Amino acid sequence: MTDELAVAVARSAVALEGAESILLCAHVNPDGDALGSMLAAFWALRELGKDPVATFPAPFRTADVYRFLPGLDQLTPPDRLRDSYDVVTVFDVAAPARLHELQHQAHRANELIVVDHHVSNTDFGTLPVVDPHAAATGQVAQRIIGALGVALTKDIATCLYTALVADTGRFLYRTTTPEVFREAADLADVGVDVTEVSRHLFEESPFAYLSLLADVIAGAHLEEDLGLVWASVDRDDLDRHGLTPDHAEPIIDMVRQTQEASVACLLKDFDSDGVRVSLRSRNDIDVATISIAEGGGGHRHAAGFTAPSVEAAIDAVREGVRRQRGLG
Ligand code: AMP
Ligand code: MN
Ligand code: MN
């Protein structure tokens, strides 16, 4: 941890300890890291006798895989929030736009603490606690919880472990450092049921998911000249199998196994908000750069953006890969 980050961690703990009211927010469509880091902070603040409010932007529902998370039933819907809170803390939020309507409360706060790990973080908030070297926002949250002097409980540890295992792709991505294993060991020491967490997150899908996967994978394209593999899934595909957008999230992990490609792309075309693009890279290509150029963000090996159409999305991806490969 750099000196600058250590100071930010300490300052955030002081701000939270002295706060009159606290709002915790995860990014829109929260994943395991956003929910896990926010709920870990929620329980830690409760240990200190605080009464934080935790939320995320509409639509106010989470994927079924997160149902086991302690504290999910404690969340407050975004339309039931007060107009302002003394201290607002946001988790895994790379840019204010990822807060949607909750930018209102974020703007009005006396202190806006940004707990994050995206290289694309736009450096917003009055108190950024951003570590681009962290594998998960949960790691940054764990340091703040330590600075608050709160001992890890099983609930806090389960939330932090969820953040870690989710954002490292089960300890597989390049971000999985010895430090990550040490922190995971600390969390397991407190009694996290690691088998249960992984079963919920990765090993339980409805039977219909297999049919969806078969359809989407059957339509995948390999562009060998670019080292690019891509597939797309739309609302009709989901409806045909009686599934919801959450069920499409793990498909990218299947697509990215293609050994002939170093960049994998999944296009999710579900609503009028645009096509959500997930990008993964093995090594040579920096997908964060491609995504930032398209108004999105993320990390070197995992990033995303939103495009107006499937055609516009795949064209932008091809163009980004071509440019980085020096293909003009
Ligand atoms: P995903 O493919 O949705 O799992 O996202 C991979 C990574 O890219 C995550 O770290 C996301 O936070 C980031 N990301 C995806 N979409 C966007 C976006 N529209 N804007 C900023 N970051 C994004
Ligand atoms: Mn996230
Ligand atoms: Mn994250």
* Helix fraction bin: 25-40%
CATH superfamily of the largest domain: inorganic pyrophosphatase (n-terminal core)
Taking pLDDT < 50 over at least 5 consecutive residues as the criterion, the unreliable ranges are none
Q: Which ligands are bound? A: adenosine monophosphate, manganese (II) ion
CATH architecture label of the largest domain: Alpha-Beta Complex
The string of secondary-structure elements, in order, is: HEHEEHEEHHHHHEEHHEEHEEH
SS field, number of helical segments: 12
Give the N-to-C terminal Cα separation. Answer: 39 Å
Can you summarize the main beta sheet? Answer: 6 strands, mixed
What is the CATH T-level topology of the largest domain?
A: inorganic pyrophosphatase (n-terminal core)
Q: How many structural domains does the protein architecture include?
A: 2
Query: CATH first level of the largest domain: which class?
Result: Alpha Beta
Principal-axes geometry comes out as: globular
Q: What average pLDDT do the residues reach?
A: 97
What Rg do the Cα atoms give?
19 Å
Give the number of DSSP strands.
Answer: 11
Structural class: alpha/beta
The amount of beta strand, in percent, is 15-25%
Strand and helix layout:
Blueprint: H1 3-17, E1 22-26, H2 32-47, E2 53-55, E3 87-91, H3 103-108, E4 111-116, E5 127-130, H4 137-147, H5 154-167, H6 178-189, H7 194-202, H8 207-218, E6 221-223, E7 228-234, H9 235-240, H10 251-255, E8 263-271, E9 274-281, H11 287-293, E10 297-298, E11 302-307, H12 310-324
Parallel strand pairs: 1-2, 1-3, 3-4, 4-5, 7-8
Antiparallel strand pairs: 6-7, 8-9, 9-11, 10-11
Helix pairs in contact: 1-4, 2-4, 2-5, 4-5, 5-6, 5-7, 11-12
Bound molecules: adenosine monophosphate and manganese (II) ion (MN) (2 copies).
